[in-house]
Amino acid sequence: MSILASARQQWLASPRRDLLAGTVVALALIPEAIAFSLIAGVDPAVGLYASVVIAVTIAFVGGRPAMISAATGAMALLMGGLVRDYGLEYLFAASLLCGVIQIGVGLLRLGRYIKFVSRSVMTGFVNSLAILIFLAQMPELIGQGWMTYGLVAAALVIIYGVPRITKAVPSPLVAIVVISAVVILMKLDVRTVGDMGQMPSTLPMFHLPAVPLTWETLAIIAPVSLTLAFVGLLESLLTANLIDDVTDTASDKDRETRGQGIANILSPLFGGMAGCAMIGQSMINVSSGARGRLSTLWAGLFLLILMLTLRDWVAQIPMAALVAVMIMVSVGTFDWGSVLKLRSTPIQSSIVMVATTVTVVATHDLSKGVVLGVILSAIFFMRKVGKTIVVTEVETPEEGVLRYSVSGQLFFASADVFAASFEHHGQPKRVEIDMTGAHLWDLTGVAALDKVVFRYRKQGAEVVVTGMNEAGRTLVERVGRHDKDGAEAVGAH
Asked: What pLDDT does 492 receive?
């Protein structure tokens, strides 16, 4: 596919659906951007400017079309301490450094390693986010009265009912418009977007962080920047994986990594904070029919238009309508099949999925849950692979000769099983160990092989190791002992 054809596919494949979906996303972005600003301890304008700049930037430089990036709660939670102790300018500096780190990760092409995150961890990540999205709506529901409950229920009826009639217009947009019209015309006393905070009335202006360029400043912001970079990339790449699955299309993880970095450099330069991909908004976007970059660009631009020219109207949108949209997203995001299949799924996979979900929900920290899930997946994998090393004694008519055939993976997790699989009794004259079906991976594996060879040599046997592949031979030549000059003497003591 030519560059022009690829660009047309990514930008103009379905412009009407992209524009409508981006409109819904922009409306839903406003209360969240304001809320995340409050979590970070900054003015609402910081979150709104960040959402505009990041969305517009990532539309051009991101690696996943139709994915929405903006100010997020996961990032905002990490910023509060820095803002409280050092002020907003240090947050701008930390956000900028976060972007630089992410670009470095992208240039090193490390984004592709997200493929090592198992399906169980992905499922736990998705389910925990669905739960967190739902729980985040509770403050707008609990204690708000029957009128709010009725509006939310009516909005959900519209959201799920309109697609049965027509799919020409995204049902969440219809719900927002209808519920807003009812509230305004009937002058109902319910919470609105305007109650969340004051929206800015001017364009974001270029601004360099006003911090001293010293090592002390770097020492203050570096830990925060590293954490922001890690959490931002983790959430962005996992969200990209999810959107890949939903849309059955591929994305460029390294480009997405670099794109997130560029967006997080530009955001603080225009009065915003660092951000990353938003799973909720991304799911709203794709479930509304968006598939191209135009949806992300329009979401950012329309958000800016809403802020500057329609803020008085936007302020009157009832929170009940937006809460209904987010409930729809949480219900649609949760993998209900993963719960129904718990009994039929391997126990290790279920443990990883549940542990990831519970940890994220309990800590409200995506990174902790995902890291725990990855560690558990690695442990279960190593245990499984560690048991696959098989040592078989091959019958031989020659007296005093023992032959063994080894198959499987020999590394630190299987080294003990390998060593214990040899019979070290009797007085064999010669021992042959055929490694044709095995692969030697690390120093512990080499040490286990040395151990077996030296045990037989202490009994006075001649030991021959054959069939080792090139990688194994190279490793043994570098760190092994049994094949070196004088090893016979070592083994005899």
From this structure: 47
Q: Do residues 482 and 453 make contact, with C-beta atoms less than 8 angstroms apart?
A: yes
Across-strand partners of 402?
431
Whole-number Å distance between alpha carbons of 35 and 30: 9
Dist. CA 17–CA 49, nearest whole Å: 25
Q: What is the pLDDT of residue 153?
A: 93
**pLDDT computed for residue 425 by the predictor:** 64
Chain centroid offset of residue 205 CA: 31
In single-letter form, the type of residue at position 452 comes to V
Q: How many CB atoms lie within 10 A of CB 361?
A: 18
CA gap 282, 68 in Å, rounded: 5
> Which distant-in-sequence residues (6+ apart) come within 8 Å of 345 by Cβ?
338, 353
Whole-angstrom distance, CA of residue 193 vs CA of residue 460: 85
Q: How many Cβ atoms sit within 10 Å of the Cβ of residue 208?
A: 11
CA dist 272 and 475 (Å) reads 51
Q: CA 335 to CA 116: how far, in whole Å?
A: 20
pLDDT above 60: residue 453: yes
What is the spatial distance between Cα 191 and Cα 317, in angstroms, rounded to a whole number?
A: 9
Alpha-carbon Rg for the chain, nearest whole angstrom, is 29
CA distances from 458 to 246, 447, 449, 452, 483 (A): 61, 16, 14, 10, 15
Alpha helices by DSSP H, listed for 387-442, are 415-420
Could you give the CA distance from residue 9 to residue 3 in angstroms, rounded to a whole number? 10
Structure tokens at 12: 């103009």
Tokens of residue 490, six digits: 């070592």
Rounded to two decimals, what is the model's pTM?
0.69
Rounded Cα distance, 407 and 387, in Å: 11
